[in-house]
Amino acid sequence: MQLPKHKLIQSCKTRWNSVLDMFERLLEQRWAVTAVLSDRTVTKQQDARVLEIRDEYWAIIADLKPVLEKLKCATTIMSSEKTVSISHIYPITFSIIKKHTIKTTCDRPRVAEFKATVRQSLSERMEVDNKARLVAMPALMASALDPRHKHLLFLARDETKAVFDKLNELCAHDLEDHAAIAEDMAETSPIDMTHSSVSMGLAKTSTTKELE
Q1: Closest of 67, 139, 76, 147 to residue 107, by C-alpha
Q2: Which of 208, 104, 86, 57 is nearest to 148 (CA)?
Q3: Burial call 30-55: b when 16+ CB within 10 Å, e when fewer
Q4: Are the beta carbons of 79 and 92 closer than 8 angstroms?
Q5: DSSP secondary-structure letter at 156?
Q6: What processes does the entry annotate via GO biological process terms (predicted)?
Q7: Are the C-beta atoms of residues 153 and 140 closer than 8 Å to each other?
Q8: What is the pLDDT of residues 200-210, one digit of tens each?
């Protein structure tokens, strides 16, 4: 067997993508693993029965690998520390829900179940079914402001409109706040401003003398 000399990888609960790493290495070393488990000079019969991976499980591992690869790609992008990623969150989330975890006719029951679990978990966590909250999510508004995602093609038309309506509402509110501040400043009399400046100057002089 002309296989790379790699050790097997154990999954780790604290590493998101370690299951994929484990599956990839198992598939790479499948025939080496099978040979070792079949060799009674290396593996006892009792141990082999416990460690043996049936063909059905090998098939499930192979079928899950492409799904896990998409999840790894998504988590790698969204957990990036060197680039801004908030505007990617919802485009990636909807891509996983609507494309990469959709059940196909050739999916085995375990694979279909895994996809359904991922879709449900993401939908609940990201509140994609709660339209009222979804359109006001900062991450979704960031997507609308990002030239790469500004058309929000992953949303329905009414949802896209609601997002931009919310953005316009926030902008209008911000303009009102700035106008109010400008009006307050304009109403401040020159005498009040002069008095304030003199007071600040006297306070500064007093503080300097105390320090001396």
Answers
A1: 67
A2: 86
A3: eeebeeebeeeeebeeeeeeeeeeee
A4: no
A5: -
A6: regulation of transcription by RNA polymerase II
A7: no
A8: 454 444 444 44
How far apart CA 77 and CA 81 sit, in angstroms, is 9
Q: Is the sign of the CA dihedral 101, 103, 104, 106 positive or negative?
A: positive
In angstroms, rounded to a whole number, what is the distance separating the alpha carbons of residues 115 and 103?
7
Write the DSSP symbol of residue 82.
S
Distance separating alpha carbons of residues 98 and 129, to the nearest angstrom: 13
What amino acid is encoded at 209 in this protein?
Answer: K
pLDDT at 79 (0 to 100)? 83
Is pLDDT at 124 greater than 90 in this prediction?
yes
Tokens of 22: 């484990």
Where residue 102 falls (left for φ over 0; alpha for ψ -120 to 50; beta otherwise) is beta
Q: What is the mean pLDDT of the chain?
A: 85
Which pair of tokens denotes residue 200?
A: 């600040």
- What ranges do the domains of the chain cover? 1-53, 156-212
Which two tokens mark 62? 């192979």
Contact 103, 137 (CB under 8 A): no
Question: Which region holds residue 127: left if phi is over 0, alpha if psi is between -120 and 50, else beta?
Answer: left
For residue 65, how many other CB atoms are within 10 A of its CB? 15
Q: pTM for this structure?
A: 0.75
